[in-house]
Every structure is written in C-alpha cells, then in structure tokens.
Amino acid sequence: MELDSKASTVYEGAVGSVKSFSPLLVEDDERPPRTRQRPFRERFLGFLRFWPRWRQLLTDKETRTTLRQRWRRRGRRLCDDLADRREWRDALLAAWTDIRHFSWLGLLAWTAVLAWVGVLVWMSVYIPQDSLFRSYSACHPDGNFDIIGNSYNMWGASGVFQVTMAWGAMSFANAKFVDVAWDVLFGRCGQALLAWISWSVFSDYVTTSIEVSPVSYETFWAMFLQDSPTAWSTWFLVRDFCRSHGLRSRAVMVFMVAVAVFVLLFPTLGGAMSGYQANNAAYVNTDQGQMIKFSELKMLAYVIHDGWRVNLTGNHPVYFADATGQEEIVYESAYGYTPEFWCSSYSQYYYTPRENSSVTTPCELQRNTSNYVKEYGFFGLTDTESTWMNQSLAAPALNISAFYLPGAWYMAERYYGWDWTDPRTNTTPFAYQSKAAYFWETGNQTFSLPYIAASGTCQPVSEVATDADSEPARQTYQWGFSFIQLFAMMITLVVWTVGMSALWLKSHMTMRMRGRSDKPKGFKGVLELAAAIRRELEETNPDDLSHKQLSAEIRKTLRGGTIRLEDAGSPEMYGLLRGFRGWIVERVWWTLGFAVSFTLAFFVGDSRGSGLYLFVMAGALFLAMLVGRSTKSRAIVFLGGYILGTIIFFSVWGSLLASYS
C-alpha cells in the first residue's frame, strides 16, 4: 500500500496556462491571453452577409493591385527572415528549448495507450469475421456435427460458456497448466494492474471534485487510503453517490462504480472465458453399425456408368476433388451448396479455402467429364460418335449421370450440368441439393447428404504412437476461449482504457489550472481525514472515544461526515473538447498539412513505396505539432524530423529491396 504521497502528480513547472492540449507532454509557454473569438456560426453568417461586398472588392482593379503588393511585401519579408542568421539562431534555440522540456516519457506512455486501444479495436473487428469462424471440419466449435461448414452461429447463446476458439493438441497436464497460468497471469495480475491504475486515476479526479463539493469520510477513505476496490468500499461508494455526498459529475460516479465492479469480477471473467476441451473428429455410422471417419468419404459429382469404354471401371465415380484425408464439407450460399474442394477456373488443381491455395492433384478427369457432358449431354442419349480425351468413341455417347451440381457461376463453368434439362422429363435433375452424395471407396457405399447429416457424430480422438517404443495412444486437448466472452472483454477493456485516459487528462489539466500538484494520499490523507473529524466533532473529543463509539458518532451525528480540501481558485473543471479545439486552432495550418499528407499517404501508398514516403512528412508534421510551442520552433522540428525520417526511410527501404532482389 502506498502511504507516501510527497511526489507531485503533475509537472511541477506546469501550473500556469492550460491552453496546450498536447496531453501534458510539454510545458505551456507564457503568452498573453488571446481575445475570445466569436463562435464559428456567427463568423460564417458574417462571411455570407458581407460576401457580395468582398466579391466587389476582389473584382476591383485597385483592390487587386493593393493585395498583390501586400503579398509581395510579405514574401520579401519572409525571404529576409530566411536570410537572417539571427532568425535561424533564435529558431534553433527555441526548438532546442522545446525539445529539452518535452516529456518524451509521456509521449511514449500515450503511444503505448493508443497502441493498446488500436490492438483491441483491431481484434474486435478482425476476430468476428465470418472467415475466422468458417468451420473446416464437420465438427463445429461447439462440438456438434454439421456437414454445412458455415451454418455455425458464432453469436449464438449456446456459445457463451463454451470454448469456441481453441487450438493445440496437448496432453491433459499441459492443457491444465496453460489454463492455470492464464488464470494467474491474466486474471490475478491483470486485476492488480487494473486496480492500481483505476484507483490512481480516481483519486486524481476526486481531488479536483472535493475542492468544490465535499464527500463522506468513507468515500475519502476508499479513494485515498486504499489502493484497490473491495466489496465494502464499492458498496460505500454506491451508497454515498446515491445520497447527497456524490461527485460533481453523475456520469463519472456511474463510471467509477462500474469500474470497481469490473475490477472485482475481473479474475472470474478471465477464468470463465477460457478453458480446455478434448479434440474431436467427425464420424459417420453405417447401416451395418460400423463407424467410419468422415474424411474417408468423397463428394460425388459424376458417375461414368460405362467407364470400360475409356479404360475406366464400370460406374466409375468422378469426385469434386480427390482430397484424400480431408473432410470435404460444403458451404451454403444463395447459389446452393458449394463443396470445399473444387477445380478453380484459374488453376489446373483443386482449390480449397482452407489454405486459400491449391491441392497438388490435377483436375483432368473432372474437367474432361464436364466438357464431355457439355457437348454430348447426359445418360448417353446422343446417338453419335464422340471424343473423350482425344479418344474417338463410336455411338452412342458415354452414359454419364450426376448427383448434385452447384449452380454458382464460378463453378458451373467447371462442373457443367446444374441447368441441364432432361429432354425425356423436361426437368433439371442435377439442381436439387437433396441429391448430393458421398462415396466410401473402402466399403463401396454411397451415402446421401441427409443420411450423413442424421448419422454423423463427433467423437474424441487420441494421439496414436508412431513407433512401438513410444507411449500408448492418449487423449489430446485444445485450449482456447469463448468467443462471445472474449469479444465482450475486449470491448470492456476499450471502454475502460478510453474512460481512464479521458478522466486522467481532465483531472491533471484541472489540477494544473488550479495550481495544485499534490493529492491527499497515504499519510497526507490520514492528516486530512483526522483534521476533518476533529473539526466536525466540536463538542466531543475523538481521542476519548473507542472505535465503536467513534463510528457510531460519525454515522448518527455526522451522517457519514463530510470532508473537502481547501477552496480552489476556480470551481470550473477543465473542458477536454474546448482545450482540444484551442490546441487545434493554434496549430490550424500544421493540422491541415498533417491531415492532407496522412490522407494522401494512406490512399496513395503502395508496395513500391511511392506513397509510403508521405508518411515521413506526416510524421514530421505531427512531431512538430507536439513539440514546438512557436512557429519558428515547429519549423525547425519539422525540418529535422523530415531529414531524419528520410534517411531512415530510404535506409530501410534499400535494405528491403536488397533482401528481395
């Protein structure tokens, strides 16, 4: 527990102006206060009101001559300043002074905060993408069997307390060790870090609040004499905030209570969202009671019934793909079912979204079968000579039938037949999803898709030993998270980080504005609390009372008591939006240059580096905005940062080009 609070909580010299918003990274320069400008709406309306007069002045020849002369004088003055060595010396001295007084540690801290928020936001957007939850196995993340790969709903209520994002093939001991390590490192250590940061920031804000509005003794005790929330302190905060001893902002009071509850529940939430489970594999029960692996089944496209005519077997199966050992699941879309493995239109090999690449087996049989039925039709109804893979065949054409053929435009070209019409029945027999079927070569059996969906199951699998001297087969486990709980945790951490940053900035800027550099923590808090108790118990000597008597006196007579610090110079709190707007207005042209260069770099940047170089200019402009406190200083900082960034950029770019050449 931290009892000593002698260290200042803000930069000691920063007790003057609060115009700078550069979040407490620099000490503000002492400038005379500006006259307050009119609101933007009034200025804009004034511009519209006097625009006809301005247009008349601009079209006047004498006015244009006067403006031209004025800009020439300004240009000559600028050239004279650039040629003046004293101006350069003053600018260099101003820049060096700003660089020395700049809080580089603060910049590093804010960079870490922004990076942390960026990572959380990126993960919150990237993880829920459907591609990450597209199941590449008939066993879905919740352990249920379903041959439709994209039928799993990652937002389903059943996945709240299920491990739906898991990895690995570990033994039980290893999986248990990983789970315990997560609970200790993330749960307990994370709780300690959250509590320390939260209570430090809350004590800063309460310091600014009790200078104007008093709080109860118990709130003061919880904020300044404790380093972390407890169940009792959280209850005291809720009770006092609901009474008249609250803070100035109700939103902050609600946020503080919510954070206290979140910190108390953090280890429980961290442990609930993680876990381990057995690795499963998909199986199908046959009519004979035999259980076979689903990966041994292959999805059928065509059947060549008289295959002996082309050196094949009778009733020769033609699969969508010959991906041996892979589970050939299907995906449902507006075009119907799409198999996972299929011959792409740009490759001679099977395409699979699993690796977003190709399988090494060629698609010759599938392609030739599709081309043949496209020209000669199905069922051998064409009584003419035909050509099969440069082999001439006598009439009739080959007797080829199909099961289900996809209707997607990117697959119909490679697997013809979805819209083929049987002239005998005037129907499209291969467009029905219920006719999709799989073939088991070992047992020479065909299974329909509805049968597989009804007979499929997920069973735990064991890791088989590779040699006789190894250990026997053992059950393997995977460790992971519940997606819904993980997503909720990331969103909560983003809200906590943004709220803490805003509250810390508002508190410290308010303390700087009021000239306060300390807060009643530790021994200082004990003295403040003791003085308040003695001051309010005028008719009773607290030293003569026991613990129970003093508690009863405070609870009944003083109704919890009230304590406040010495009166502040101004009861106003620092406005973040107002301060940020003033900081931007003071650097309006620099901000515009940074926005333009960053936008161009973002949209023009490519792998050749022609647009990426603009990030150097954007970075130099941003650094000048943060460090420089005057126009001359910003110009020197920008020039130095731009030169240094250019050297680093071309050095790194040259090394990358050399490594890939």
Which helices and strands occur, and which strands form pairs?
Elements (H helix, E strand, L loop, with lengths): L39 H20 L1 H23 L1 H17 L2 H23 L38 E6 L1 H38 L7 H8 L6 H12 L7 H23 L1 E5 L1 E6 L5 E3 L3 E8 L11 E4 L10 E4 L2 E4 L2 E2 L5 E4 L4 E6 L1 H13 L9 E3 L2 E3 L6 E3 L6 H4 L24 E4 L4 E4 H7 E5 L1 E2 L10 E2 L1 E5 L1 H32 L8 H14 L10 H11 L18 H11 L1 H17 L9 H14 L3 H30 L1
Antiparallel strand pairs: 1-20, 2-20, 3-4, 3-17, 5-6, 5-14, 5-15, 7-8, 9-10, 10-11, 12-13, 15-16, 18-19
Portion of residues within helices:
40-55%
* Number of DSSP E strands: 20
* Largest sheet features: 5 strands, antiparallel
How many individual helices?
Answer: 18
Calculate the mean pLDDT score and round it: 79
The N- and C-terminal alpha carbons lie at a distance of 58 Å
Query: Which regions have little confidence, pLDDT < 50, spanning 5+ residues?
Result: 1-35, 349-360
Q: Identify the overall geometry.
A: flat
User: What fraction of residues sit in β-strands?
Assistant: 5-15%
Broad structural category = alpha+beta
Radius of gyration: 37 Å
Keywords: Membrane, Transmembrane, Transmembrane helix
Transmembrane segments: 102-127, 154-173, 250-270, 479-505, 588-605, 611-628, 635-656
